[in-house]
Amino acid sequence: MKKGMKKSLITLLLFIALLIVWNQTEAKVSGPQTIHLRLMETTDLHGNMIGFDYEDRKKTVEFGLSRTASLIKQARNESQNSLLFDNGDILEGNGLDEYAYRSHPLDMANIHPVFKAMNTLLYDAATVGNHEFNYGIDFMEASLSGANFPYVNANIYVEDRNQLDEDDLNYFNPYTILEKEVTDTSGQKHKLNVGVIGFITPIVAEWNKEYFRGNLKVKNIKETAEHFIPIMKSKGADIIVALAHTGLQSDKGLDEKKGNSVHALSKVKGIDAILFGHSHSVFPVKDELQKLPGIDLKTGTINGTAAVQAGYWGNHLGLIDLKIIYQDGEWKVKSSLSSIRPVYRTLNKKSREVIPADPLMEQIMKKDHNDALDYLKNKK
After folding, report:
1. Distance between CA 222 and CA 254 in Å, rounded?
2. C-alpha 295: how far from its chain's center?
3. Cβ–Cβ under 8 Å, residues 300 and 328
4. Boundaries of each Calcineurin-like phosphoesterase domain copy (predicted)?
5. Can you give the residue range of the structural domain that contains 67?
6. pLDDT of residue 272 exceeding 50
7. What pLDDT sits at residue 29?
8. Is 83 domain-assigned?
9. What pLDDT is attached to residue 14?
10. Residue 26 pLDDT > 50, yes or no?
11. Which of 40, 43, 232, 298 would be a feasible disulfide site paired with 277, CB 3.0-4.6 Å?
12. How many domains is the chain built from?
């Protein structure tokens, strides 16, 4: 090798070595790779797709997904990475839902009205609530088929009339793992595997016993979570989000209260965030019912696990902002902050809108809304 070429090669190798050292030093100075991920929740919508009170036959600013939709779009614009979930109770509860059950044929070309609205918002996943069963299993299945997003539930099983757990079959897919492309704080893109699992209060089997008896059974929430969370981790879930249609505390009518509340679920190792509903409350908020041990209302954690509950009928949007870092070869939730955003506020004893309704959703719902009004007017 000629002397000049040898010298150039040595210089190049030294440059590469210095570049590697500089990159390593830069990485140490700048810290671990960091992702900010926003989780958004709606829950207990009960058919309220627009701001209209079907009981009193008048418009309202106090609820309706068309207003929550505006909050969702606003919250998405604020965050580089976000996911949207619903926590169930959508198929029963108001005049629109009743019309959909009594007079609205469901098929591939004519889906349930609530999903005409919800599909426009690009939900990532959802779980079922107890009111999904009020009109029967067949109607529920036909309705949910109109959703453009997956439904998950881990603790409803097919009733097989034996005492063996080993051969039990889940009625729904117990969980899903979403492959989410995210951007870190330095602008680099990554694939984040977000595991999503669903749960429901076992009292659904009592409240809808005419449909559950002989067909379905419901298992303990905490025990079910302890079974599935390790499986989800083994399948590649980087973080795990639980959608829990149950309250902070267990339903009063439950025979088995232990393990069937969000407070109990929050103690399961491996769950990074819990989005919950059912009790029509909000979390985090200063409330006598929320003075349980392990609750931090400032950050919105329960026993160290991020949590949020978004009220009912679309009157709030629930948010959990996660800071996720790459450490020791895996993604870990470093910190979190939970919050709720209302669609209205009360001033001088009057309800004032916080944000206008989304015009696209109102337009999409116009025909079904008018058909529902006609149905209610003419029903005997």
Report:
1. 15
2. 20
3. no
4. 38-281
5. 31-378
6. yes
7. 45
8. yes
9. 55
10. no
11. 43
12. 1
